């Protein structure tokens, strides 16, 4: 099976407007300013390397889920920034390492079956391709490490690769050491992961002249397994850059919303939820997020930092961040729909113009009524308010209507006997019920 690719299925229009910041002397200095270098091999050598002739570099992504998430997006954007500096990216999707999974600090991963991993390889590959350019002298390539491990025998693996690794060094790797000292320990399968990743770097070095690997700092042990292997086998130096693990200023884990990961796939995390996640960024975090996740230049980001300090209530930096990242991942059209839907929910736009998918995503977290509410025909406003929990009783609901505090689909209801059915529903099924300005609920008459 050969999966090397020189062209994506679809081109992301956002690529056309992306540039690195010309105010920096070189890409290494820009990466440092953006806070994207926590640990690396020799800094002086790396700056010289990245300031010279084009090099080939790579980052690997394991298919441990059907989509990439925001932590992966950090790495993808590093790939893109280096490509904009003239270097040649290799995007590796781990068809073999995905069958094992890199060791977590907490416990063993649940192994997925081969068909699932193969399917996920395709999903991840398509996502990565959207962020890289496959044209020009430094066109990106996609590779799959199953190509060089799938037919490799255990004996050849142990003789040709395993003999270069020392167990004493392997057990000192941070994640491995933590797992060894835990009650669960670590399996030989996960213990061997760093050998496989080292072999990836060696193969890419031989096949493509790859001399740099990027990844998260929590992967540093795996990154250096490759640089060490290349030094021992080939007698030359290779490099690695580890980006910091991003956390919020309050110490909570970044990239989670209501306990769920923020995925790049719209089916797993809607564009509306994605946009709202960025819009809710804390003032203390927003400038750092702009540095990491957008291609805005230093002058633009510093101007937004001044506005955060002087007029935080305007949340201009958050709006800019939400627009930039959502447009990058989901496209400008989807982002405009999300913004229009947000405005329409609060009576500042045409609710009827919001498409069904965006409306469903935008109201997914709202209170709902019990299924079957509209099965018997039109439903009265009083029943709607009570069934959705917006009013605690019929009498309270009637007072809400009489006081002018009730609306359906952004139209005020003044008659307590008014009833609503599919004829008045958005897309023939949805009723957005409101009490006051801020209390909303969604009724799906088809449920």
State the gist of this model.
The chain is an alpha/beta fold and 447 residues long. 43% of the residues lie in helices and 12% in strands.
Helix share, percent: 40-55%
Class inferred from helices and paired strands: alpha/beta
How many helical stretches?
19
CATH topology-level fold name of the largest domain: Rossmann fold
- The rounded distance between the terminal residues' Cα atoms is 46 Å
| Fourth CATH level, the homologous superfamily of the largest domain | HUPs
Shape annotation: elongated
DSSP, total strands: 14
> What is the CATH domain class of the largest domain?
Alpha Beta
Mean residue pLDDT: 92
Strand order of the largest sheet: 1-6-5-2-3-4
Show unreliable segments. Answer: 1-6
Residue fraction in strands? 5-15%
Q: How many separate domains?
A: 3
CATH A-level architecture of the largest domain: 3-Layer(aba) Sandwich
Largest sheet descriptor: 6 strands, mixed
Family: Belongs to the class-I aminoacyl-tRNA synthetase family. TyrS type 1 subfamily.
Subunit structure: Homodimer.
Function: Catalyzes the attachment of tyrosine to tRNA(Tyr) in a two-step reaction: tyrosine is first activated by ATP to form Tyr-AMP and then transferred to the acceptor end of tRNA(Tyr).
GO molecular function, one term: tyrosine-tRNA ligase activity
